[in-house]
Amino acid sequence: MDIVQALCQEFHLKTQQCENVLRLIDDGNTIPFIARYRKEQTGSLDDQLLREIYERLQYLRGLDKRRGEIAAALEEQGNLTDELSDRLQKAATLTELEDLYRPFRPKRRTRATVAREKGLEPLALALLMQNETKGTAQELAQPYVNPEKGVETAEDALQGARDILAEQMSDDADVRKSLRALAMRTGVLESKNTGEEDSVYATYYDFSQEARNLPAHRVLAMNRGEREGFLKVSLRLNGDDCVGVVEKAFVRPGSVTTEQVALAAQDAWDRLLQPSIEREIRADLTERASASAIQVFGKNLHQLLMAPPVKGRVTLGVDPGFRTGCKLAVVDENGKVLATGVGHFTLPGQEAAKARARRDIIDLCRRFGVTAIAIGNGTASREAEQFIASLLPELPKSAAYMIVSEAGASVYSASKLAAEEFPQFDVSLRSAVSIARRMQDPLAELVKIDPKAIGVGQYQHDLKESQLEEALDGVVEGCVNSVGVEVSTASAPLLSHVAGIGPALAKNIVAYREENGIQSRAQLKKVPKLGPRAFEQCAGFLRVRDSKNALDATAVHPESYDAAKALLATLGYRLEDIRSGGLAGLSARVEERGLSALAQELGVGEPTLRDIVRELQKPGRDPRDDLPSPILRTDVLDMKDLAPGMELRGTVRNVIDFGAFVDIGVHQDGLVHISRMSNRFIRHPSEVVKVGDVITVWVMDVDLKKQRIGLSMLPPAQK
């Protein structure tokens, strides 16, 4: 297989473009580096597409490896014909390869194996030829009767021959391919309950849907229900149509052996093909559903990580609790811990404790100038929110609060990393610090947590861990490198996601920084084990705000510093103008000179020059600044306050296949079903909303008993 041509066709790439991408990958370059700093070679492909190309490349190379292994095995067996070799070369999937190898793969002892040992294979071949037009099949089988071998009658011989034929039919690559296509096109996945017990799977107790139209969340839900013993799931197929596929391939009318071949075809389907095809189709449905779920998780995680930070505010983090009280942590604008404490104000009664907590919190907020309060959404969150809201009139005028997801906070708090970062604090106080920092800079804090623990997907615990980790690591890496990292303050976990660094180098950078400080990008070359290759990959994504070289605070790569300086000099600017904001007219002057002519003069590609100009005008720009700010609340609602038709503003917390969960400030997130998102047809909620979006919703229904809130993004008049 020509991998380059296959990738070109699939991704609509030019040959040279594809070859460049593969060479850059094989040379060990990271995806963020390729996407940002090798645009001339890739044709400005973005990091998402590059990751897709990389994943497909791995698959195709694995396919080629397996193709070679199968060819070698067939060669050793003496079964590799020219025709089979050609079919192996043309196979486009692992399934096709394995189908071709299936007849020759070593098997466990089967009915066909036993029949061959009895010497019935020649009879099977004679039946399959279907050349005999006179006599009977029984007469044809009579010479194979051999009581010593367990063949007592002609019918015994025919049965054994049919066993051989059935296995041969079930191993036929073309038949299996046709049956899979038919099953996926017409099959119906059904589920039944296995008992009378009520459960969360009640929706699927008597459920059926065409396999081809099953959304990912239903496939995964049915799989989980089956694993937990609540459901019996099966694939319903039209047996006559399926047997017809086998008969079309093997049965020819007009022979005395035709009936025997037809019986073998029926047996092949009933005994061998039907259970095998059902397993394969369900495995395929699961694989597709998993891929879809991973994609949804990745999109949600990206939006969560890229949520706008609440900058420039001293923040109070509140980790709610009942019996042990609410843990408190005040952090400054840069996330440095200023004070910690405990407040008992969530349990009924205990007025003295509440009064004391009130005084303590007001004192903390006034003493340190707290203007933002982050409340975790776990146990006692509702009570904590009500108490904090009651304090707002006594706090600085700009003070407001926000409910922050605690997902994964407990995982981080109990981790070795948290212990190293805050050895003086217990687990709950670390959690309060993490909650405060999540509000200030979600990206910097959430990178410390295993993405699977963040909880913004669907059925993540049912997915292949390796695939999920790879996808999510790519999302985290993409987000970190898109934003850039201030090397003088970044934590080791954050640095570890910068292109070319990793955990070990990140620790080395932090250790070197603590001992020597970092005043420039060039100084990074002195970090132990950070060699030229690693520096090339990471330098453009690291910022040194206080460097004497203004370019060190930008996304301009050091390899382009000479070009950037020459550009400024050519157009009448100074390097100092970067910091002073004196480059407002840069784009206009570039346009006057002509981008293409300037690029040629400076010895860089046009995409690189375009990026340099953009970065010099907004050095170190945070792409998150362009997003709407999160909602900071000054009031509090209760589910009992909600009524149908009420209009509210809320923040999207999670997007799944059938809708989106929205925080409307009542502790319990409401669900906007996909059918209530738009007046137009949409295939997936992600077409309309994403995690972190601030949207207007209307209350549809409230179920206090089940703690469920139904919302709509459509005004009541448009329902």
CATH superfamily of the largest domain, please?
A: Tex N-terminal region-like
Given this structure, which CATH class of the largest domain is correct? Mainly Alpha
Report the span from N to C terminus: 53 Å
SS strand fraction: 5-15%
Query: How would a crystallographer describe the biggest sheet?
Result: 5 strands, mixed
Low-confidence stretches: none
The backbone outline, from C-alpha atoms, is globular
Radius of gyration: 33 Å
Strand adjacency order, main sheet: 6-5-4-7-8
In oligomeric terms, what are we looking at? single chain
* CATH-defined fold name of the largest domain: Tex N-terminal region-like
The beta-strand count equals 15
**Discrete helix count:** 30
Please, what is the average pLDDT?
A: 90
Question: In the CATH hierarchy, what is the architecture of the largest domain at level 2?
Answer: Orthogonal Bundle
Helix content: 40-55%
SS class? alpha/beta
The structural domain count equals 5
